[in-house]
C-alpha cells in the first residue's frame, strides 16, 4: 500500500491526538446538556453501553481501515476495494465532517469569545446573570460570526503545519492539563450545598425517563463523542506505525472518553442543582454553569480563564481532526499545498457556518422541521450521518475488506487471544448494524 510521508512520532502522541479528536465538544459541552435533556442517569448508562458495545468496535474498524490502506478516508476505500462503489463511505465522511465542522465551529467561536473575555476578568461579576450573558453573546450576529471566523482561522493555521508539528505537539501538552483542571472543578462542585441532588440525577438511572428518541440521542452521542462515522479515525490511523496495537489504542480512547464524560457530569450537575438551574437548559448549559461554579471559588476568575483556555484547546483538537480529513482528501493525489487546501476549506466552512451562527439572532425564527438551523444541522449529523457512516463502515469491514488484512491489522503490536478478534468481528458484522438500524427506525416511528 502507499507510503505515508508523515507519521505520528509516538504511540502516546497518537492516543492523545485521537482522544483529543474525540474529547472535545462531544464529551465536555454536548454530553452534559444531552444528559440533562434526556433524564440523567438512564441516558448516561445507555450512552456507556453504546460506547462499549457499538462505538468501540466501530473505532477499531476505522483504525483497521486507515492503517490497512495507509491512505486518507476517500483513498482508503478505493485502495481496499478498487473498482467498486465503496469509496462513497469516504466521501460521506468528508461531507459529514464539513457539515459537522460548520456548526461545531460556531460553538468553538463561543468558547473562544468566552476565553478572550475571561482573561481581563469580564465574565465573573457581582450578582451577574450568566444566562443573560450567554444570550447576549449568542444573540449578537457580529460576535457569533467573529467567533466563527477566528476559530476557523486557528484551525487553518495548525492544519497547515501538518500532523507531527501541528496536531501531535499541541495534544501532548494540553490533554493532560485538561484532565487536571477537570478534577479540580469536580472536587469544588461536590462541596456545594445541594450537590448530592445533582449526583443522584446524574448517576441514579430512572428508566421511565427514557424514550425512543433519547435512546437514538444516546447512540448518536456515543458516535459524536468518539468521532466515529465520518472516517476521521481512518485518516488519523493512516499515519500510524505497525507496532501500535489498534484494539488497545481504541480501548484507551474509549475509556478516556467515558471518563471525561463522567467528569463533565460530576462538574456540571452538582452546580446545576445547587444553584437551582435547569438541567434541560440545552446548548448553553456549560456556559451558564461554569462561571457560576468558578465565581464561588477563591481566584475564580483565574481558574475560569485557565479552564476555558484548556476547554478551547480540547475543542480545537476535535476540530483539527475534522479539518484534517477534508484537507487530506484534497491533497492526497494531486500533491496540492496543505496550506492552500486548508485555507480554501476554511473559507467554505465559514460560509456554511453563518446560518448556524445566526440561529440565535437574525435567523432564530427560521425553522426546519421545527428546529433552528443550528439544531437541524446537529440532528442531521449526530442522528443520521454518524449512525449511517458507522453502519456503512461495519458492512465494509464485514463483507468487503480482505479478511486476512483485517486480521493482521487487528493483531499487529499485541498478543491478544484469537477469541478477542472473533468477538469483535461478530459484533461488527451482526450486532452493530442490527442495533443501528433498529434504533434509527424506532426513533423515526417506523417500527
UniProtKB/TrEMBL annotation:
GO terms for cellular component: membrane. InterPro entries: Na/ntran_symport, SNS_sf, YocR/YhdH-like. Pfam families: SNF. One of its GO terms (molecular function) is symporter activity. It is found in: Membrane. The keyword Metal-binding does not apply. The chain crosses the membrane at residues 12-29, 41-65, 86-113, 133-161, 173-192, 212-234, 255-277, 297-320, 341-359, 379-399, 427-446. It is a multi-pass membrane protein. Keywords: Membrane, Symport, Transmembrane, Transmembrane helix, Transport. Belongs to the sodium:neurotransmitter symporter (SNF) (TC 2.A.22) family. This is Transporter.
Amino acid at each position: 500500500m502507499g507510503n505515508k510521508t508523515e507519521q505520528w512520532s509516538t504511540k502516546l502522541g497518537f492516543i492523545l491526538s485521537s482522544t483529543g479528536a474525540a474529547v472535545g465538544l462531544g464529551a465536555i459541552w454536548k454530553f452534559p446538556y444531552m444528559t440533562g435533556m434526556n433524564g440523567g442517569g438512564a441516558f448516561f448508562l445507555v450512552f456507556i453501553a453504546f460506547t462499549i458495545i457499538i462505538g468501540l468496535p466501530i473505532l477499531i474498524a476505522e483504525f483497521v481501515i486507515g492503517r490497512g490502506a495507509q491512505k486518507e478516508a476517500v483513498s482508503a476505500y478505493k485502495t481496499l476495494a478498487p473498482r467498486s462503489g465503496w469509496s462513497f463511505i469516504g466521501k460521506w465522511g468528508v461531507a459529514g465532517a464539513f457539515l459537522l465542522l460548520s456548526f461545531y465551529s460556531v460553538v468553538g467561536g463561543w468558547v473562544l469569545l468566552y476565553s478572550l473575555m475571561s482573561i481581563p476578568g469580564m465574565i465573573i461579576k457581582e450578582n451577574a446573570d450568566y444566562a443573560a450573558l450567554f444570550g447576549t453573546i449568542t444573540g449578537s450576529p457580529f460576535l457569533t460570526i467573529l467567533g466563527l471566523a477566528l476559530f476557523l482561522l486557528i484551525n487553518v493555521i495548525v492544519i497547515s503545519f501538518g500532523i507531527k508539528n501541528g496536531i501531535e505537539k499541541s495534544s501532548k501538552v494540553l490533554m493532560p492539563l485538561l484532565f487536571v483542571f477537570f478534577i479540580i472543578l469536580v472536587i469544588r462542585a461536590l462541596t456545594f450545598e445541594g450537590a448530592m441532588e445533582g449526583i443522584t440525577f446524574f448517576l441514579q438511572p430512572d428508566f421511565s425517563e427514557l424514550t425512543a428518541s433519547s435512546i437514538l440521542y444516546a447512540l448518536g452521542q456515543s458516535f459524536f463523542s468518539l468521532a466515529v462515522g465520518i472516517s476521521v479515525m481512518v485518516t488519523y490511523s493512516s499515519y500510524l506505525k505497525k507496532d501500535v496495537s489498534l484494539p488497545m489504542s481504541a480501548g484507551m480512547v474509549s475509556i478516556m472518553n467515558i471518563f471525561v464524560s463522567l467528569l463533565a457530569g460530576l462538574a456540571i450537575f452538582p452546580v446545576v442543582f445547587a444553584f437551582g438551574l435547569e438541567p434541560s437548559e440545552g446548548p448553553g448549559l456549560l456556559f451558564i454553569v461554569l462561571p457560576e461554579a468558578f465565581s464561588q471559588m477563591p481566584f475564580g476568575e483565574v481558574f475560569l480563564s485557565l479552564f476555558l483556555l484548556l476547554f478551547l484547546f480540547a475543542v480545537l483538537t476535535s476540530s483539527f481532526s475534522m479539518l484534517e480529513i477534508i484537507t487530506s482528501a484534497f491533497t492526497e493525489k494531486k500533491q496540492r499545498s496543505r496550506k492552500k487546501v486548508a485555507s480554501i476549506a476554511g473559507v467554505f466552512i465559514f460560509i456554511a457556518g453563518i446560518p448556524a451562527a445566526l440561529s440565535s439572532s437574525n435567523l432564530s425564527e427560521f425553522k426546519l422541521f421545527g428546529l433552528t438551523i443550528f439544531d437541524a444541522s446537529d440532528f442531521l449529523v449526530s442522528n443520521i450521518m454518524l449512525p449511517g457512516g458507522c453502519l456503512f463502515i461495519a458492512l465494509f469491514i464485514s463483507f468487503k475488506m480482505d479478511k486476512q488484512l483485517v486480521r493482521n491489522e487487528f493483531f499487529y503490536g499485541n498478543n491478544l487471544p484469537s477469541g478477542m478478534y472473533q468477538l469483535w468481528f461478530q459484533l461488527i458484522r451482526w450486532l452493530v448494524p442490527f442495533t443501528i438500524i433498529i434504533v434509527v427506525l424506532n426513533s423515526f416511528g417506523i417500527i
